[in-house]
Amino acid sequence: MQRDVLVLVEHWGGEVETITYQMLAKGRELADGLGGQLLALVMGDELGRVTQTLRDKGVDKILLVDQPALKQAGAGLQAHVVAQVARRIEPGLILIGYSLVGMELAPAVAAKLGSPAMTNCVNIELRDGSWVVTRPVFDGTLHAQILLEATGPMVVALQKGVTPAIQASGKGAPVEPLEVDLQGVSFRSRLLEIIEEPATDVDITKADIIVSVGRGIGDKEKIPIIQELADALGGSHGLLPASGRCWVVAAGPAGRSLGKERGP
Amino acid sequence: MKIVVCCKAVPGVVSEAKIAPDGKAVLYHGEFLAMNECDESALEEAIALKRAHGGEVTVLTMGPITTLDTLYMALAKGADRAIRIDAQTHDPQSASAVLAAALRKLEYDLVLTGAQSRDTPSGQVGITVAERLGIPFAYAVVEVQVADGNAVEVRKEMGGGRYARVELSLPALLCVQTGIQPLTYVPPARMMRARQQPVRSFSLPELNIEAEQLVPRGYRFVDVFQPRRTSQVEFLQGGPQEIAATLLSKIKEAL
User: Domain extents for chain B?
Assistant: First the structure.
């Protein structure tokens, strides 16, 4: 069994996403368990800042695919890059965050490598020298544990928040730039634009208190009642610096569909 | 525009789940089969596209005879024809191989699937089908615009409140998010009429697929259980002094 763990780095506007730090923490644990290396794959265009941020995050090596052609890459092309890199370095495991980006990439990478993929996992652990994943089935009413037996690189996508983020190690990881051959790859899907569209001017992930409205409210016309409730409690639609608390009325759908999740 | 929608019938209630002796499947008793929610959204979107741009909608499912009702509902909603592949697997790799083989026998400009099924929520089958067919794909699609006869432009969720606009040349496969179209109600009379319509059936030999190809490779199930609750509540008993002392020792323990 190949022992190296390759983590796919998800980044936006030069910032590394939290889920990636969580994958790195898990990857570190799994690589150490088998005496392998933890490798981080960064791909895209103009990646200086991302690479710099990752250098002290406990990674043994950063693999960098920095090509202008990747700026408008659709998921198919990105998966092609990951698969090419995986064939070259032959990791035992490719760890991908099960974000909306990972949801699209993981099956495509696995398909290109001819490997099975385990997605939507809540855990992966080493048991008697093999990787065992846990994932929900039947609407999450049950969890299944699955032993990975494939010999090639396994693709595993883990949910966000199943492990704490990796801590800075203080060591600077070497960066290895890689050239990926994109000749002959057809660009049949093309990213035109990324739209940042918060549903309200309030970021629910940062609010202390959220007034949430469910379907029981009936219709949209009744939203002002809830707004009034928030107002009566001294809040307003937005931040309330005076009390240091925040009353929010989210008129649009919140939670998973917007990709923002909040615990109580 | 020729659209094929892949719909899955999923159980509403599952009991007696256990691992098959060879570890290759989770066996269970399922009741209340219904069309998977985001597959139904995909079907509604296909019907909306047909109304706007013309064409035809074929609905495709894989499963035993009990899944026929799902197809009748699709016909009642406005699909033009229905096909059932007489096979069953819960493995995303083999399911995608079967669906891709069936799609190769059909004409299509667009293949729509739901983003994820309720029973085996892996979200892999649509994308793996696209990879097998060598066509472009997009996941978590919330809006579809037909640019011209050769391409579609979609809006898809990227998480964190972000969306992406992506252009895909046709034929293409889109994994559709729930809510892309409101779900329509099917009156009983229309459902009864739909039951009179023929449903084409594909067998595995017709698709040149051997039964053993449906056995998952590269992994095996070792356990299936109810998720352990991570939050545990303990009520401390006794007078205020006693509770305070216990609480302090528990905090020290945790630290």
Answer: 2-214
Sorted by where each starts, the structural domains of chain A and their CATH numbers stand as: 5-177 (3.40.50.620), 199-264 (no CATH)
* Nearest-by-CA chain B residue for A123: B227
Of A129, A22, A37, which is closest to residue A90 (Cα–Cα)? A37
Q: Which two tokens stand for residue A119?
A: 């997605």
Alpha helices in chain A (DSSP H): 18-34, 48-54, 75-89, 100-113, 223-232
Q: Which CATH class is domain B2-214?
A: alpha beta
| CA atoms within 13 A of residue B117's CA, in its CB half-sphere | 24
Q: Are the beta carbons of A258 and A199 closer than 8 angstroms?
A: yes
Query: Are the beta carbons of A192 and B167 separated by less than 8 Å?
Result: yes
CA distance B128 to chain A (A): 6
Q: Are B161 and B126 in contact (CB under 8 A)?
A: no
Q: Do B218 and A150 touch (CB under 8 A)?
A: yes
Alpha-carbon distance B71 to B65, whole Å? Answer: 10
pLDDT tens by residue, chain A, 264 residues: 588 999 999 999 899 999 999 999 999 999 999 899 999 999 998 899 999 999 999 999 999 999 988 888 888 899 999 999 999 999 999 999 999 999 999 999 999 999 999 999 999 999 998 999 999 999 889 999 999 998 889 999 999 988 899 988 878 899 999 999 888 777 789 899 999 875 555 555 555 566 666 667 677 677 777 777 766 765 444 333 223 333 344 444 444 433 444 444
Q: Contact at 8 Å (CB) between A54 and A40?
A: yes
Q: State phi, psi for B135 to the nearest 5 degrees.
A: -115, 155
Q: How far apart are CA B197 and CA B82, in angstroms?
A: 9
Closest approach of chain A CAs to the CA of B162, in angstroms? 5
Tokens of A90: 């032959």
Interface test with A, best of B168, B174, B219, B221 (most A CBs within 10 A): B219
DSSP class of residue B161 equals T
Chain B residue with Cα closest to A111: B128
Please give the DSSP secondary-structure letter assigned to residue B83. Answer: E
Q: What is the ipTM of this complex?
A: 0.88
Chain A contact for B11 (CB, 8 A cutoff): yes
Rounded to the nearest angstrom, the minimum Cα separation between A253 and chain B is 11
Nearest CA in chain A to B28: A138
* Partner-chain contact A198 B161, CB within 8 Å: yes
- The amino acid at residue A169 is S
pTM across the whole model? 0.84
Partner residue facing B137 (CB), from A75, A150, A196: A75
